[in-house]
Amino acid sequence: MPSAATGTNSTFNTLKLSKDRLINTIHETAKWGAKGVWGPNPTDTGVCRLALSDLDKQVRDWFVEECKNLGCTIKIDQVGNIFAIYPGKNDGLPTGIGSHLDTQPSGGRYDGILGVLSGLEVLRTFKDNNYVPNYPIALVNWTNEEGARFPVSMVASGVWSENIPLETCLNTMSIDKVPVSFGDELKTIGYDGAVPCSYKENPLYSHFEIHIEQGPILEHENKKIGVVVGGQAFEWNLITVTGRASHAGSTPMDTRSDALYTASKIIQLAIETAKKYDGLATVGTLELEPKSVNVIPNIVKFSLDVRHFEDDKVAIIMKEIKEQAEHICQININSKKAKPLSVNFDNLVNSKAVKFHPNNIATVKKAALELFKPEEIREIVSGAGHDSCYCNTRIPTSMIFIPSKDGLSHTPEEYSSPEEVDNGFKVLLNTIILYDEARLQGSV
Amino acid sequence: MPSAATGTNSTFNTLKLSKDRLINTIHETAKWGAKGVWGPNPTDTGVCRLALSDLDKQVRDWFVEECKNLGCTIKIDQVGNIFAIYPGKNDGLPTGIGSHLDTQPSGGRYDGILGVLSGLEVLRTFKDNNYVPNYPIALVNWTNEEGARFPVSMVASGVWSENIPLETCLNTMSIDKVPVSFGDELKTIGYDGAVPCSYKENPLYSHFEIHIEQGPILEHENKKIGVVVGGQAFEWNLITVTGRASHAGSTPMDTRSDALYTASKIIQLAIETAKKYDGLATVGTLELEPKSVNVIPNIVKFSLDVRHFEDDKVAIIMKEIKEQAEHICQININSKKAKPLSVNFDNLVNSKAVKFHPNNIATVKKAALELFKPEEIREIVSGAGHDSCYCNTRIPTSMIFIPSKDGLSHTPEEYSSPEEVDNGFKVLLNTIILYDEARLQGSV
């Protein structure tokens, strides 16, 4: 049991919990995509389960079957989001618990998966205890949160919240060697549902999500639970540097327009500019042409992900990077004989800072304080984007974080201990109970 | 006729030349791979004709047919090198004229092609004039000079000169999306010949090659002909930087081990170090993992091509780059919280500076001086590698250069004017005649 709770919810205390079932389920379902051995134990691997792949289909089929066995009604919408509706005593919009079962190509066992399976453990606990909530609970598996295979992250919650057009999602092409469309792959795995993908036509009352922090703050400060109050602003750009291809052996240095040399200076600049303003910058993809050892590259395209807790700081950082990048292209290799290069910024995503709903934040905080000491809990801002950020644009939403070892995620070594997973689950369970009770009282 | 020749070879003057046939052949054969429009004229494109592709087969079939029609005997060796032997009055090893018909993916119309087709024009001119040389002439199309599709450049002359094992060549895998072996593709296009690929078993007496300069020196100095006396030393390395993947949104800057940030610093360092020593450095390929917009790369692999006219300078440059790269990995992002990265240099090619044979150089110089003013001719060192460099390890070899517009090559805009092409051909023709006559006199 958690240490020295400051108060307890009477309902939570009446429920018998199944020790280790959640962590075992996390490890059992990792068989669909287990990859990237990092330690001696059989569970010391990551997971590679790209959205709408055969492995994604397999874990979805299992998930649907499990939820049906618990008495849930299954609704699959037009972009493959799965809503498993656990019935309540009263009619009313379901309270949502959601996250995602897809992963990065070199992903871990927890990112997203923790959220869906913790939600499942909530429903399993209700079922074991014959506990019927006041209102239905919708456990949601959002499609393609990662944006790793179909390169628009959180696209399916984006469509549901009507921030992204349905057609944009369905037409998104995969980054596979032979690209396929989101819509075609959805059909291939049989998850092209008929339910409208819309918060208006298939509504939720509210949305909660538990997730690993994916950063080092909780671990460094020795906190058990993060009460997530919002998310960072971020901007994605595709940057193209254009120079001139020429032979590596016969083109003097002072006449080159080397697109990779210039790009390497812009990459350094971008990272150091973000750091200067206490923001974050990451170049995660880079392609060049013509891709031959002895040819000076003429085109380099790379992504730039810039984040900050404050919207205006993202704008300041991007402005400075753009101005300095132009300057770098002009000076080139500091030779009058060399032609300047050109640089183009193509904005892909522009996401404002997120402020979660006060009622949801308060419920999570109350639920955590009933189970842990105040000094074990911390308000925190999410560094990463989540489906909850799109949900929050339409319905009251908030999140719960548990610590990530060494702050790592999107890597096989991503790890949270069984105790940390259990702590988080208990806070989620208590949150759902408290929120469901508050709904009956009309206070949320 | 060339301007103000300082002396003339009596044989050269007896031959009737076919105006424009060579340049027309260059443009006609560009149909096999024409790509990369850069101007309004139908000939304003580059050529993409990767080694052992269907397009390579088509140009080879045409080449073999043309040579047969001139009375040549065709020999195809184990790596697909084509030797078209034009008979002479006397037995004896053939004098070689060689270059290559394959191109870079974004190649031009002249690199390599000029050499083979200028050789063909020599044979056509002999045939037109019923001129029989003293000794046979072997016109050689060397396979996969570029190393663009099968990433070992000059591999086939390397095998012939016994600098590269036959099996290494045949087992080289292509960089195609679905990689195939050199040996399998050779069979597919029907150029897996039975003639041993060896300078011992299929010898040449000597080797000449005409090529575009691929650099700006002749153009800048207003020279018509480069008498090539040797080639730069160069070294190829595959550099791997290993850091740690983590989430772009939730990993603080001062805890990152960003492999691309570090690689970008090493790329800059390498280029600036080579420049400092009057050498050349080029990073032409770069791959990273895990290749996701919002994941910090953990692995970046890139090629580094370093060249210098002096062997020891290449070693000095590489030593400094390696030491400094280690240092860059250690300091990482100047934060005590961040782990150092690691860097590994995998040496792919190490090629000493080339000194061509004095007899061949002297013959080319004499041939040029008979046709052009001394101030229109210049000794020059090749920046690029050529099949002639491998030939030179076993038989007397040298090369002739003509100017490249803006010094460009390995790009569709690569250009030499019809007059420059014609100038070069005349020097080649005169060289072959003079050398053939010198052989009879026993002076070479």
Automatic annotation (TrEMBL), chains A, B:
SUPFAM superfamilies given in the database record: Bacterial exopeptidase dimerisation domain, Zn-dependent exopeptidases
Q: Residue limits of the Peptidase M20 dimerisation domain?
A: 238-328
Which keywords fit this entry according to its UniProt record? Hydrolase
Domain of life, per the record? Eukaryota
InterPro entries associated with the record:
Amidase_Cbmase, Bact_exopeptidase_dim_dom, Peptidase_M20, Peptidase_M20_dimer
Q: Which residues form the signal peptide?
A: none
| A family per Pfam | Peptidase_M20
Q: Name one GO molecular function term.
A: hydrolase activity, acting on carbon-nitrogen (but not peptide) bonds, in linear amidines
Tell me the protein family, please.
Belongs to the peptidase M20A family.
In Swiss-Prot or TrEMBL terms, this protein is called Peptidase M20 dimerisation domain-containing protein
What organism is listed for this UniProt entry? Candida verbasci
